[in-house]
Amino acid sequence: MNLANEKAANRMQIGLNRPYHRVAAALRMKVGTVHSIVFRRTRPRRGTPPTPPAQPVLDSFTVGAIRRHIHTKFAAKQVFTLASLTGNLKEARIIPESTSKISLWRLLHKMGFQYKTAQRKMYVGK
User: Fold this and answer.
1) DSSP 119
2) Integer Cα distance of 24 and 30 in angstroms
3) What top-level branch of life does the organism fall under (predicted)?
């Protein structure tokens, strides 16, 4: 197939609904070769999976500071969610900025704090 021949004949030799055949004819390849090239370019590449982010390392001083921060909120009779607690601890620079809400939830669970869910929010309790 030559695009000049198509123009001269004023009609398509291979229809637009067969793109692999059109590309193969234009590049003078086999249709199977075009299929394999497209397959190799579009399939997900195997390789080493990305390394997961490192868990934040919190020493005993940081854990104690978190516990004191929570107990001062309990003493003030404040109700707080996991998200607001994470924000407050990051503002106070007790935990690093990269600490996620889930990491803090795991830490609070290990520390023995309980929580309840209401209106799709987690409220921390004793």
Assistant:
1) T
2) 6
3) Eukaryota
